Amino acid sequence: MTQLRFLLNDQEVALTEVGASDTLLDHLRLARRLTGTKEGCAEGDCGACTVLLGRLTGAGLVYEPVNACIRLLASCHATHVVTIEHLRGPEGGLHPVQAAMVEHHGSQCGFCTPGIVMALYGLWMTDPQADEAAIELALQGNICRCTGYQPIITAALAAGAAGGQAQDALACERAAVTARLAGMAGGRITLARGADRAIIPSDADDLAQVLLAEPQATLVAGGTDVGLWVTKFLRDISPAVFIGHLMKDISVAGDEIHLGAGVTYSEAAPLIARHIPEAHDYWLRIGGWQVRNMGTIGANIANGSPIGDTPPLLIALGARIVLRRGDARRELPLEAFFLDYGKQDRAPGEFVERIVIPIREGARIAAYKITKRHDSDITAVAAGLCLEVQDGVITDARLAFGGMAATPKRARAAEAALQGQPFAESSFDAAARALAQDFTPLSDMRASADYRALVARNLLRRFWLEQSDPGLPVRLRQPVGA
């Protein structure tokens, strides 16, 4: 097929001239004149461009807030894009979320307001009784310079109390929208705008064949990184193969979690909370809500960034990945996939198909992320720690760090300093000193080399303190409004 099809509010859109680098935001504002969706940062950080994206999943039709600025248009096939213009109340007036924002003075300059309303709308639909903690989590990816957030939180609480979810337009239209999106599914789609080409495979088998024919193509999953290549660096990504709708399988087999490479952070979050609860807070700091709804675990690995959020934790847990080229597959430890900066053990035409994560029952696990601001920020140092302790002795230690080397990397010397030693403060002090043998970090805009080295040492000491006294507070939170 040569036509991109999706629903935009209450209209069906069919496009034949679509380039790989076309963004959803530009289409909304320039082609459709839906200017309620704003461009602020053009990198998925400020949330002014937030829209809802409805897509069919195994659980039915799901709506999620996403960043239109880095959402590439070709990835919207067979979805329902909902903008601020589509919101309305039961009588055609303001939606309950909009009305609450007006009543509680949740907007000042107004530039960020449409994106905030759309994020809160997504929360209002899925969690009608959301408390302040859930509201703050939903607003991680929305930056407001005016209000200080308290009026916005108050408005969100009021909107939840107002109810009306059953009468909401998206709820009433759910069956019809589901049927229309299901009718858009089909075979491979090939799109072009001049020499700018986009390919949407029908399934993973089709993807394997596409990459045999186009081994140098750019793979686009959630677009949370590739989108910046387009908006910030003006890179030519053609031909691009869009795979965010593929490899969505999730299962638990014995003592292992199996994730398709296309599983998003949000889709994996319930499984992480259930089987690796020590990493749940860490997981919810991977970008903002919009980024977690778009970004995929497989792409975070395949991108090979030294500051990717998932590899340190997954390496510490002993994760493996399955690579596929054509019909051939091979499995290797995740740590072996990263060879050097920008270089991974992946042949042309090969792609990450699956991630296998051991469930380490009884292990002592932690995941830490150090950033300049707490929410929705890029990592300066990340750590994944997993220790087995028997009768007070450390029998196995796996320590992995991001931001400390050219790749996500295990701290072998620090592991050796812990192996066979008592689970005691002195052992962790020795491991912290041994980190100097493992890493020679660099200075950049996010942190100096000395700071990174100090943080890594202190994270080992933090781990000891938390494990030796589980009642020790990890994070001091000020009451909202204090």
Supply the CATH architecture of the largest domain.
2-Layer Sandwich
Tell me, rounded to a whole number, the average pLDDT.
95
CATH topology of the largest domain: Enolase-like, domain 1
N-to-C terminal Cα separation, in Å? 57 Å
What is the assembly state of the chains in this entry? single chain
Could you explain the architecture of this structure?
With 482 residues, the protein is of the alpha+beta class. The protein folds into three domains: 4-85 and 174-242, Ubiquitin-like (UB roll) (Roll), CATH 3.10.20.30; 90-167, [2Fe-2S]-binding domain (DNA polymerase, domain 1), CATH 1.10.150.120; 250-468, CO dehydrogenase flavoprotein, C-terminal domain (Enolase-like, domain 1, 2-Layer Sandwich). The chain has 18 helices and 20 strands. The protein has helices at 24-31, 96-103, 113-126, 132-138, 150-162, 169-172, 174-182, 204-213, 226-231, 265-275, 280-283, 289-294, 297-302, 310-317, 334-337, 412-418, 425-438, 449-468, and strands spanning 4-8, 11-15, 50-57, 60-67, 80-82, 189-193, 196-200, 218-220, 240-242, 250-253, 256-260, 320-325, 328-333, 338-340, 343-344, 351-358, 364-370, 381-390, 393-402, 409-410. The strands form five sheets. The protein has a five-stranded mixed β-sheet with strand order 2-1-5-3-4. Strands 10-11-16-12-13 form a five-stranded antiparallel β-sheet. The protein has a four-stranded mixed β-sheet with strand order 6-7-9-8, with helices on one face. The mean pLDDT is 95. It comes from Paracoccus gahaiensis. This is Xanthine dehydrogenase small subunit. One of its GO terms (molecular function) is xanthine dehydrogenase activity. Residues 2-87 form the 2Fe-2S ferredoxin-type domain.
